[in-house]
């Protein structure tokens, strides 16, 4: 059962925290993407220096699989104050279950296939849209654009 609609969480750095909870369901470690955002919201998708522990449902940063820790001077610093660590889930949109050819399994599998196709269609649409960075705090502003009018422009400023 999945009773939470969230698939991402952002943590603010304090210079001491190393372990960050994953509050949403995850099936595979490879479904987790970890992003670091600096004070200016410049984002870096991490390829290393973090460890996903699905038993504890946490991400450790900096973190490594047990026994594979590099020397202390080769590790990045802990998440600094003013920085963010964003944990998000990105599951491949596939349906990999074959239930067999007996009723009702054919009906169930067809329904799962249809849901997967719908999700793939939505993902295709989503990839062609303007999006906000992961570090954007949606409580700070609305992402709804005004209706376009001739001679007007959309401008960000202070």
From TrEMBL:
It comes from the Bacteria. This is Phage tail protein. It comes from Dialister invisus.
């Amino acid at each position: 059962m999945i009773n939470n609609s969230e698939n991402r969480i952002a943590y603010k750095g304090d210079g001491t925290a190393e372990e960050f909870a994953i509050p949403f369901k995850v099936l595979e470690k490879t479904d987790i993407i970890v992003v670091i955002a600096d004070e200016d919201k410049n984002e870096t998708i991490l390829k290393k220096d973090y460890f996903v522990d699905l038993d504890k449902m946490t991400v450790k940063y900096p973190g490594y699989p047990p026994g594979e820790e590099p020397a202390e001077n080769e590790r990045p610093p802990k998440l600094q104050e003013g920085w963010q660590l964003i944990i998000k889930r990105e599951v491949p949109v596939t349906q990999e279950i074959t239930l067999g050819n007996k009723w009702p399994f054919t009906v169930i599998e067809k329904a799962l296939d249809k849901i997967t196709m719908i999700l793939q269609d939505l993902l295709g649409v989503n990839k062609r849209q303007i999006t906000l960075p992961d570090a954007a705090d949606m409580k700070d502003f609305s992402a709804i654009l005004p209706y376009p009018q001739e001679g007007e422009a959309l401008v960000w400023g202070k």
